[in-house]
Amino acid sequence: MNFNNNMKQVLHILLTLLLLFTFSCNDDNVNNDNNSILIGSWGEQFPADEFFELTFYNDDTGVMTVYYNEGKKKSPDPFTYSFDKNTMKLVIVFDSDPEPPIVYDVKVSEGWLKLDCISGDFEDFSMYKIK
After folding, report:
1. E-state strands within 1-131
2. What is the dihedral of CA 76, 37, 130, 68, to 10 degrees?
3. Cis geometry, peptide bond prior to residue 100 (ω within 30 degrees of 0)
4. Which label site among 6, 8, 68, 110 has the fewest CB atoms less than 10 Å from its CB?
C-alpha cells in the first residue's frame, strides 16, 4: 500500500506541474496576437526617389527606415507602438521625436497595409509586405 500511495503522490505532482505549465501564460501572448497582422516589414516607394520601410516587431517596437539616393543611403528611426485590433488604431512614438505621437487608422488586406494619419501630422502610407 505504501508503494501505491507514493505513486499517487508522484502522479499528483506530475499532473500539477503539467497543468501549471500548460495554463500559465502572460500578457505578451495576448499582445502578440493583437499585433500579429502588423508584424514584419512593409515598404512604399515615394516619387522623390525615397523608399520607406516600416518594420514592426512583436515586442511593440519597430523601425522606420528611409532609403534615398537610389538606396545608397538610409536613415533608420526606431519607435515604439501600440495597436488595437478592435478599433484598428495604431499609435507610433518615434524615439527621435516622441511628441506628438502619430495615430493611424489601419486597413490590412492581402499583403497591403494602409495607414491613414489621423493625428500627429505625418505621411499617409499604402505599403506592401516585403518581409
Report:
1. 40-46, 50-56, 61-68, 73-84, 89-94, 102-109, 112-119, 125-129
2. -30
3. yes
4. 110
Cα–Cα distances in angstroms (integers) from residue 42 to residues 16, 18, 97, 105, in the given order:
44, 40, 21, 16
55: Cβ–Cβ under 8 A, 6 or more apart, which residues?
Answer: 40, 41, 42, 62, 63, 64, 65, 131
- Per-residue cell: 35: 499585433
CB atoms closer than 10 angstroms to residue 113: 23
Give CA–CA dist 94/103, Å, rounded. 12
Cell triple for 85: 485590433
Partnered with residue 58 across adjacent β-strands are none
Predicted structure pTM score: 0.71
Q: Which amino acid is at 123?
A: E
For the stretch 77-108, pLDDT in tens is: 999 999 999 999 999 999 998 888 999 999 99
